[in-house]
Amino acid sequence: MLQVNELRPPVCKLCCSQNSCSDRDFLIKIFWPKENTLPNTSDCYGLQSTQGGERVDDVEDEGMLDREYLVGRQVPPLKVCVFRRHTRVFKQLTVKRCVAALFALSVFSIFYSLIYLSYPFSSLIRREWRPEPSIRCQVMSGLNRLPAHDHRSAARLRIDPKVLVFVETTYSRLGRDIAELLVYNRIKYKVEVASKSLPILTNLDKGKYGVIVFENLHKYLQMDKWNRELLDKYCREYSVGIIGFLLSADEKQVGSQLRGLPLYIHRNLKLRDAALNAGSPILRLTRAGETAWGPLPGEDWTVFTANHSTYEPLAWAINDTRQEDTNLLDEEFIKTPLTTVMQDHGGFDSIQRVFFGSGLRFWLHRLLFLDSLSYLSHGQLSLSLTRYVLVDIDDIFVGEKGTRLRREDVLALLRTQEKIQSMVPGFKFNLGFSGKYFHHGTSDENLGDDLLLENIEKFTWFSHMWNHQQPHLYENQTQLELEMTLNRNFAKEHGIPTDSGYSVAPHHSGVYPVHEALYFAWKHVWNIKVTSTEEYPHLRPARLRRGFIHRGIMVLPRQTCGLFTHTILINRYPGGREKLDESIQGGELFQTFVYNPINIFMSHMSNYGNDRLALYTFESVIKFLRCWTNLKLTSAPPLALAEKYFNMYPEEADPVWGNPCQDPRHKKIWSHNKTCDQLPKFLVIGPQKTGTTALYTFLAMHPNISSNIHSPETFEEIQFFNGRNYYRGLSWYMDFFPITKNTTSQYFFEKSATYFDGELVPKRVHALLPQAKLVTILISPAKRAYSWYQHMRSHMDPVALNYSFYDVITASDTAPKALRDLRNRCLNPGRYAQHLERWLLYYPQQQLHIINGETLRLNPVEIMDQLQKFLKIVPLYDYSSHIKYNPKKGFFCQVKSTQDGSGCLGRSKGRIYPQMDNRSYKFLQRYYLSHNTVLAKLLKRLGQRVVPQWLKDDLSDTLPA
């Protein structure tokens, strides 16, 4: 314990005995309790330890901070705080003072924001300077363009439009960049990890790949002799080219020769100021004649030199390496433009190649890579040079005062539109209006509204929403239609066209995830035929955005331009102007134009006021595209764009419904009356005639398991994922699983036996139910085929009645269609391994449970116990006391307190058929031999310890019992 035992002169240093202190010294302040009178500021107390009587003149232990000490018997405890000598002493902070300070800061922030953004203050602080497009190049100066090369030749007819990519590992960065670029441009490809063996390269008399790409060129150069000769032979025979990348190395290499080629490399250089060889035949998409000024990304560039006429530079750059790092290079080499991309015309060994001295970080390399694919594949992998552009301006008339368009902003919009029209034929800004907010700005902004309406014919128009409300918030379709009608009436009153057939929902609400009321209301009020969204299937990654058609409305993918509602001032743009210019000049926005044949861009009214960032952005990127590409930009109305899009990509017409709860953005724009707890946790997927109905009955007995509501058309089976019901949408499907108070504790499931062999079903199921578990039942495929035939006979199918089983299963492809259809339904589902492998492409084996149908028939209690454990359902249900064997039926039935004491399946189940004839069985045994062999291996791979007896029998010569 420390005590005050003497009064000392006013001293604030504990080491004051020597009248000197260092920066490490501490100051002391004593805070007295409130009930005591504060001492004079001149008072300072020296402290003396009671232990040994030593003075506490030098305090180095910061542990003394905020420690309480007793000071004598008559004096209450004092609070002693120790501070650094150079630290200023503040008054003691209290909770009230902190709250008051935070409150004052909050008020100041709000006041500052209001002043900064609100009229009339905002008009006072608006800067006269705004970013103006500064893109300059020879084309913009009137220089004629060189025509783009046409790479098509007869050689393309011998190869498929597909790329083979060799990577070092499946996780390598450059390999991933290559794959993503190919996906963005919808180019088919196959990735192979470079190893001792090659994939199959030919199919009959045609090459399977048009171009071979090596992520690391050395993997090609250092191939073993057998594989190298095999690959080179393929390239020569089918005129297939090779693209190789030189990856960075730890050590510098100066003048190192590439193995087996008269080509030399210099590695680990910094470069700047890239330019292209205008005479190169490779250039098609890319346009030469300009210089990409500034440093190139990275410090590990490889450059090439050659002493053979087969090599021709495709791209150059200037050395930017520090002088001390270039001691090994001669002065002439340092000053000469260095080749960063080299073309091999094939004069050395009859194989054409393109070598890149770096990866795809540099935007120009991405263009050259696409051109190299086109050139080396003889036009088989050429991309169209036409790009359609539509710029939507959402939220017209919507916005807070100070963020809306003024008269001078509208005049600037018209001027920029004229400039863009000179570069993009048919271009008009597409204005999406919400009529409720017309004339809701300042007087100056209201004049801007008026000027827009005075120039209606100079723009194209589409309806947003009357009050800019999100459609998914309307559960009542009538109310939604009323809002749309108000906007339509506003348009008619002011002469705005109403026949575009195009609309966009605020925040893309209701488009995807689908809000059915929106689609019906759009059709009824506006006769909408086209819309667009950035949300299908997800916002990111942008390369995977797609279109779909629902309820007769074509949904196009919408692109972002880096500008959002609140990006209205350049000095507040995330990353500043440098970041925006990076996107424009070769970055994300530039590449969006390059990779997408049809571009619908989202922007907002606020982007065209204030600093007019949208005008700057679109004019700049279009000019940059003209400088560096041979793309032909044009525009068209939304309906024409939609028709072109689905002509290009007809496979996208069918939607794939995803799970809204897997994407936070989707969950925010999904009806609040829906929950993913409604969706089934597991599916019984079939196949037909294996015992799925019996399993369904047993599952429905469990108190914690609930099935779907019966369909009036397909009874207990919804048959959603494999037929036309899928186009009815997710809401239709979820209506079969009503919300209850105990929804979260219930295990919803559905059984549709037709799911098992549906080609599209695994993809569709996984998109909506990625965590669901799958249950399938397998019996002898021969018995299953015969059972289906007998099932069709019992339903009086004319084909089954008029043809014997043997005639059906042996029908040729020239047989009548009805006979072929019955043959296929008998035979195809029994190719078990083929269908299981398709499911395993989407689901891990841990989510798949395979039931032996024979065991289910003979011992269902054992099967149900195993299934409950697989599903992790608690508590376990004791089936042994709830299902019993019924000798009359010949199978197990539910125990019920009915007249006969049991609840059995209907008369259509458990029918006794005539035994299958031996000739048919022998045919089916041969037919399924290869399929069953693969199935046996698959079951072993999946961890099935016991091979089903029926599978052993089918793989032997045993006749059916």
TrEMBL record:
GO terms assigned for molecular function? deacetylase activity; heparan sulfate N-sulfotransferase activity; hydrolase activity
Key word Nucleus present in the record? Answer: no
Q: Which GO terms describe its cellular component?
A: Golgi membrane
Catalytic residues (positions): K689 (for sulfotransferase activity)
The segment(s) forming the Sulfotransferase domain are 680-929
Heparan sulphate-N-deacetylase deacetylase domain segment(s): 387-590
Report the membrane topology from the UniProt record.
Single-pass type II membrane protein
Q: Which UniProt keywords apply?
A: Disulfide bond, Glycoprotein, Golgi apparatus, Hydrolase, Membrane, Multifunctional enzyme, Signal-anchor, Transferase, Transmembrane, Transmembrane helix
Per the UniProt entry, the Enzyme Commission number(s) are 2.8.2.8
Which leading EC class covers this enzyme? transferase
Please name the GO terms of the biological process aspect recorded for this protein, alphabetically. heparan sulfate proteoglycan biosynthetic process; heparin proteoglycan biosynthetic process
Give disulfide pairs as residue numbers. Answer: C893-C904
Respond yes or no to whether keyword ATP-binding is given for this record. Answer: no
Amino acids binding 3'-phosphoadenylyl sulfate = S787, K909, G910, R911, I912, Y913
- The transmembrane segments are 98-119
**In terms of domain of life, where is this protein from?**
Eukaryota
Family classification: Belongs to the sulfotransferase 1 family. NDST subfamily.
Q: What is this protein called?
A: [heparan sulfate]-glucosamine N-sulfotransferase
